[in-house]
TrEMBL record:
<feature type="binding site">
    <location>
        <position position="105"/>
    </location>
    <ligand>
        <name>a divalent metal cation 2</name>
    </ligand>
</feature>
<feature type="binding site">
    <location>
        <position position="76"/>
    </location>
    <ligand>
        <name>substrate</name>
    </ligand>
</feature>
<keyword id="KW-0031">Aminopeptidase</keyword>
<feature type="binding site">
    <location>
        <position position="233"/>
    </location>
    <ligand>
        <name>a divalent metal cation 2</name>
    </ligand>
</feature>
<comment type="function">
    <text>Removes the N-terminal methionine from nascent proteins. The N-terminal methionine is often cleaved when the second residue in the primary sequence is small and uncharged (Met-Ala-, Cys, Gly, Pro, Ser, Thr, or Val). Requires deformylation of the N(alpha)-formylated initiator methionine before it can be hydrolyzed.</text>
</comment>
<feature type="domain" description="Peptidase M24">
    <location>
        <begin position="13"/>
        <end position="240"/>
    </location>
</feature>
<comment type="subunit">
    <text>Monomer.</text>
</comment>
<dbReference type="InterPro" id="IPR001714">
    <property type="entry name" value="Pept_M24_MAP"/>
</dbReference>
<comment type="similarity">
    <text>Belongs to the peptidase M24A family. Methionine aminopeptidase type 1 subfamily.</text>
</comment>
<dbReference type="InterPro" id="IPR036005">
    <property type="entry name" value="Creatinase/aminopeptidase-like"/>
</dbReference>
<keyword id="KW-0378">Hydrolase</keyword>
<feature type="binding site">
    <location>
        <position position="168"/>
    </location>
    <ligand>
        <name>a divalent metal cation 2</name>
    </ligand>
</feature>
<dbReference type="InterPro" id="IPR000994">
    <property type="entry name" value="Pept_M24"/>
</dbReference>
<feature type="binding site">
    <location>
        <position position="175"/>
    </location>
    <ligand>
        <name>substrate</name>
    </ligand>
</feature>
<keyword id="KW-0479">Metal-binding</keyword>
<dbReference type="InterPro" id="IPR002467">
    <property type="entry name" value="Pept_M24A_MAP1"/>
</dbReference>
<feature type="binding site">
    <location>
        <position position="105"/>
    </location>
    <ligand>
        <name>a divalent metal cation 1</name>
    </ligand>
</feature>
């Protein structure tokens, strides 16, 4: 969507604050021995209390309030009672929701407790690469150039990118134009970021794999080779200068 009024901006700020707060509090609530279902239900209670509706449930009938992916799972992980979190797990929580006709999306990966499996460098790279990419986004910049930047920064850090998961436009629905904001340079993508548009920009930084594959549950995406992936995501408004980061309250850069 393109913001055309103060009401638009206020509505987006309100739903963005809701998903950002939910993500931040879910991250703080997670602990070893807890199931991903328990963590998700906590997130669902937070969203409901804030007056927000889970976007994946609303849009796709997803069997959870949020997406929680653990270790080799990359995205769209289904919360489950049998998935028990352990010290050192690489966890990704993605929270998207709707409120008052406006939508926002954010996510972040983190290491649970002590970094016994040495995932922190991957998490740190994903966080910093997202920060660098967002700092370069403004009206008129080619989407492909931001993808190339993400890919180059990942390579410099000793990592790769997942190519079949992308950022996207957002605002009046969960997925809008531009439909794809990839993590790599696609010379065929001639689209540019538009001033006053709303986008969800996300990194998918991988230890080895370039693609995520759907598991038999029909939702969860995971690597086939045992690679680990860190994802971080903000919803933002594109301007002629530095973007307005609507989900800054999630604390993924803290």
């Amino acid at each position: 969507m393109s913001i055309t009024s103060q009401a638009d901006l206020t509505g987006l700020q309100q739903i963005s604050a809701a998903v950002a707060t939910t993500l931040q509090q879910m991250r703080d609530y997670a602990q070893p021995g807890m199931s991903t279902k328990e963590l998700d239900e906590y997130g669902g209670r937070l969203l409901t209390a804030l007056g927000a509706r889970s976007a994946p449930r609303l849009t796709y009938g997803f069997p959870g309030w949020t997406c929680i992916s653990v270790n080799q799972e990359v995205a769209h992980g289904i919360p489950a009672a049998h998935k028990v979190l352990r010290e050192g797990d690489l966890i990704n929580i993605d929270v998207s929701a709707e409120m008052g006709g406006y939508w926002a999306d954010n996510g972040g990966s983190f290491v649970l407790g002590a970094d016994v499996h040495q995932h922190q460098p991957l998490v740190d790279a994903s966080r910093q690469i997202l920060r660098t990419a967002i700092s370069r986004i403004r009206g008129g910049v080619r989407i492909a150039d931001i993808g190339g930047l993400i890919e180059d920064e990942a390579r410099k850090a000793g990592f790769r990118v997942i190519k079949n998961l992308v950022g996207h436009g957002i605002g009046r629905s969960l997925h809008e134009e531009p439909k794809e904001i990839p993590n790599y340079y696609d010379r065929h993508n001639l689209k540019r970021f538009k001033t006053n548009s709303v986008v969800a920009v996300e990194t998918f930084i991988s230890t080895r794999a370039n693609f995520a594959h759907q598991l038999g549950d029909g939702w969860t995406l995971a690597t086939k080779d045992g690679s680990f992936v860190a994802q971080h995501e903000h919803t933002l408004v594109v301007t002629d200068g530095q973007p307005l980061i609507l989900t800054a309250a999630n604390g993924i850069w803290d």
